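User: Show me sequence and structure for the first protein, then do the same for the second.

Assistant: Starting with the first protein.
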Amino acid sequence: MNADREANHDMTDRDIALLLADAADGVEIGIAPTQAVIRGGRRRRARRWAVATAAALAIVGSTGTIALAGLPGEGGHRVAPSATQPTTTLPDAFRDKPQRTTLAIGTDHGKQWEVFIDLWGAPRDETEAQAQLAAMGGFGEQPAEVRTASGLVGKSSYFLRRTVGDDAAGTIMFNTVKKFDPMSGTDMQAAATPLKPGGAGPSRLVVGQVAKTAQRVTCTWKDGTKTEVRRVPAGYGVNSDEQVIRPADGSPVNWFVCLAPEGTAYKSAEVTR
């Protein structure tokens, strides 16, 4: 799929569906496994969907722009924000280090896993942006669609990542934007991926973002079982093997984690208000 060809043209829902099908057909099974596309919430016109090279997948939601590690190459289509809704910016503090929130922890095959999110505040000038870009590198994080430090000025970034055992953290979803489009109702953006960063295997781990008002997310697995995660308040403890919807420091949306039981994989996910 040619990203440049799609970048400057509006598309219909049918066009988007065809592009997603083409992208899925182009993924080779191997070290970066083929994974499904997840949609949720309101449907809007799409301009471009930013993707990045890495071993993970994409799940398309309904609001904002998102970069997802997983499909080969760069490009795709972006979901356009609503012109009638206000946007929310992240706080401009934490420019030299991220606000980190642990979203879930657990144990799998005797190894502890963790899903966390890093949120970076917006640099006010190029000097701060250069310092932030260098600091991000120290955390193993590269901002989306930013080629020089000046591209970070006035923009906030987030990186949704996970670790398993002593392996290096792998990035699942990330974004760098001036303003974050608010989510509401059943809006959802998420990704399904193998639990181990960079590993092959079934897409057991589902992570993503939902509106602050979302009460529950239900993940359905290929064996017919379901995992329901509920919303918890700020300050709620991170308990081993308990997956929930929780707020993250500095984030205008909430975040959830679902992990499939051993021997099965992702089939579908939906928000229940």
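Switching to the second protein now.
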Amino acid sequence: MDRRTLLVGCVALLATPLAAEAQSPARVFRIGVLLPALAPASAPRLDAFRKGLRDLGYVEGQNLAIEWRDAGSRSERLPQVAAELVELQVDVIFATSTPAALAAQQATRRIPIVFATAGDPVGSGLVAGIAAPGGNVTGLSLLAPEIVAKQLQLLKEAVPKASRVAVLSNPALPHTSLMVKETEAAARSLGMWVQLLGVRGADAFDSAFSAVTKGRASALFVLFDPFLFAHLTRIVEFAKENRLPAMYPHREYAEAGGLMAYGADLRDNYRRAATYVHKILTGAKPADLPVEQPTKFELLINLRTAKALGLTIPPLVLARADEIIACPDKADASSGC
């Protein structure tokens, strides 16, 4: 399946009929959606964004048109696809991540830009400040560097014997260095040894995975990154095949078979991003809309994977989980239960 087929398929999946209670006004707003990559796992987030718009009265085909663009996991293509949205003269660009928002910001200083998952919006240069963005960009942050210590602590509590942790990251992401710094500090406090592995492209996974194996890591720790998220299935399968307990930054990893995931509820972030778009379409300026921090965090634990790894998750850790993916009452051998 090529990238365009996947894009069309995912958008079709999201294009469920929307309510049409309101009469169609003369004005049709055009929103450009810019993604680093459109993976099937992205569908629920994008659906949350569209639902947020629907709840605010925007109906596709009546008063709303959405232009979808993605870079196919190739960060170098982001400026090109961002420029396409600028050429279309959309009213607002919804850039789902820091790389997408930066590409859009470089493409235009006129069209308003809303982001949903910026790890460090000030440090990356997206905004001048959290309270006063000061430009044509605003949105919701992720608090990625701030929660790294808690993610690693949860992994250590779930797997007390884990002492050598392989850390998978994308050095190209602006705030990766800050996340790595926080990871190293947290690891020292927990008595863990860290093996840092950077993955900048799809062809770098094999060497990174080989290094994990040679380094005899006892656990895997995946930092937030849109590119890594697009390859979550590959990462999760590697961890399972090598019997590595792992902590991931988002629920989709655990749903795909990863052991644990802790982070902001990005479906909620995407839904709230629709409110930013609405405010801008009704006259607000991005410069005057403060950047919001996530309000919902979630811990998922996959007991199917724990059983496959021969792990017993401590009851106190299980009690803190917002969602547990458990073995069904009747499971076949292929389920891992």
